[in-house]
Amino acid sequence: MARSDSLALIAPACLLIGGLGGALLTSQLGFPTAATQAASNAPAPVARPDGVDRNANLARPTAAAAFPQASAPRPDEAPEPATRREFGAASEEASGETEKPLASAEELGRADSLVAELTAILRSGRIEQALATDQSKVVDRLIDLYLEVGDAGAAYGLLGRVETRPGNWNFVAEALRRAGRTDLADEALAQAIRLALAGDSTGGEMPGNLWQIFQRYQNDTDAWLDELRASSPDVAADILQQQASNGELDSGMRIDLIQSLRESGRVEEALAEVESLLAEGQVNVAAIQELRELNPERAEELLNSLMSSNPSAEIELEYFRVLNSSGRSEEALALILDRAAGGTLPAHLLREAMRTMDADLVGEQVDAWAANAPDNVTVQTEIAQFYTRAGNYEAAADAYLSIYDVAASGNGGNVPLIPEGVAQAAQGAFVSRLDRMTTFAGTDDEYWGDIADSYWRLGQFQAAESCWRRANEIDPGDGEWTNKISAVENGTDPL
Question: What residue spans do the TPR repeats cover (predicted)?
Fold first, then answer.
């Protein structure tokens, strides 16, 4: 390691000599002393989200053993208290702090011997050899220490002078955000993403293509991108644009780029990216959704064409949404009515209509849809939820009973938990269906459990307990059943 690299780490070490910060430094770098033992009231290490054990050193040498050439300075050579201006000019700029001693006189008095010993270590030159053996661990320790003393800005400054992995940048970004340093937090997070997309922990290139590299960091990078987009979409867009210019973004991340551009107000750039993606010839529903947000007229034109040349449920749904969102609800509803007249109820359009359209407009059609699809569990479920939201519990009960009739016929189907108000509207009818279902439940513990849940909601507590016990007999390893049985025995609500 170059001398300049090691000095980038030695300077922060000097900065942390004063008081208990110095005690933390020696103990975490593996150089415990008697003074370190006395400083047992030092704060505990910061919990790291990356799962790295910061206390994994097993046999730590004493400072004298680690650096035998070092000798303590004479009393007249005792150093003055370190200040941020002497040893941390770069970090001072990042942290925005003015010059001040790191520790009080009282704290320095308690650690005089420690200061002398650390000074001897630093003067010996041997610390550079120690740093050369495992720089990453030293960087981790120094970041922990800076954050323990509340100096996230100094930690940020240190990362700017050394090579480190993406996780450290994210770790410091979180600390900066907690401290209200949003701009620095965004830049630190952006650097974490750049490193994750570009290569390994030190920024070097990894074998394989970008997708293989991205897979290594995918879970973290997805979350980091979402966070950065929420805080600074413009920065996220710049990062992704750089990757796109190198041809290194798949279609999913190109959608992330389009969304970042749109969220940062760069509409023309977002439109250009959408058109470029759509021009590749494949039907990309996510790109069409973005086009619908950016230019509804252009989206309608494209969807009209696709409805004729390449129809699908997804395309039909997007076309419905374009019409509905542009104030043409009756035209959107006509898509459903035309399909219903042909003998088919499009469940995907019914769901969208009942969740997004004016209730009065849709309500005029719902009864007819329910009558035309008594055995369609998907349609009846949407109708039941529509009426429940509207507070029409009797109509909702009829739809739920249709669903229960399918399950009670022995032909499969699910047993949804009925909302409380709906359950009271037709309690006896629901109980009779559940009684019939028990004759078909067989050895399906989940089915028995669903029946039990519904019995309990209907106030049939003994029947519910009996069904949970039956489920537990079938699968005694499923904790859900034992937990619910215990709740019943303890007099608490198992639901």
Answer: 445-478
